[in-house]
Amino acid sequence: MAAPRRGKASSTVLSSLPLQMLLCLSGTYYALYFLATFLLLMYKSQVFTYPHSCLVLDLTLLFLMGILEAIRLYFGTMGNLMEAEVPLATSLVLTVGSALLSAYFLLWQTLVLRADLALGAPLLAVHGLEAVLQVVAIAAFVS
Asked: How many CB atoms lie within 10 A of CB 84?
């Protein structure tokens, strides 16, 4: 005779493997992006005429983006693995903020070099793809 089951057990896994892989890739790429962007800012401040106030703004936004990215990846991973809508929705909102900061460094910072474009475009593309996969995962969790 089989033992009675406690609680509701579901054999269906709803967490998204592509999203989880992309979150892991994004964390690794962002660490490299952060380091390269920081070094590029130092290079620009030494080689080009770069106003001190603009350098402070760009560095502040870069560090803010680093904090935002860490929180975003934590909530995204936690929400996906636990199949929870609220942490994943929080990560989605933070992804939009991080994408805006990525766009700033790609287009609107004080001095944009080709290296900034080569670093920022893939990051922005990854953020866009993550946002789509997060919406799909949230829809799967809700239904």
From this structure: 16
The secondary structure of residue 83, as a DSSP letter, is T
Quote the CA–CA distance of 83 and 38 in Å, as a whole number. Answer: 35
- Rounded Cα distance between 96 and 91, Å, is 9
Are the C-beta atoms of 89 and 141 separated by less than 8 Å? no
Contact 73, 129 (CB under 8 A): no
Low-confidence ranges of the chain (pLDDT < 50): 7
Angle between helices 52-82 and 85-103 (to 10 degrees): 160
**Locate tokens 């920022």: which residue?**
120
Q: Are 94 and 73 in contact (CB under 8 A)?
A: no
Nearest to 50 by CA among 41, 39, 38: 41
Query: What is the rounded CA–CA span in Å between residue 101 and residue 62?
Result: 8
pTM metric for this prediction: 0.88
CB 88 within 8 A of CB 80: yes
What pLDDT does residue 4 have?
Answer: 52
- Domain boundaries of the chain, sorted by first residue: 17-142
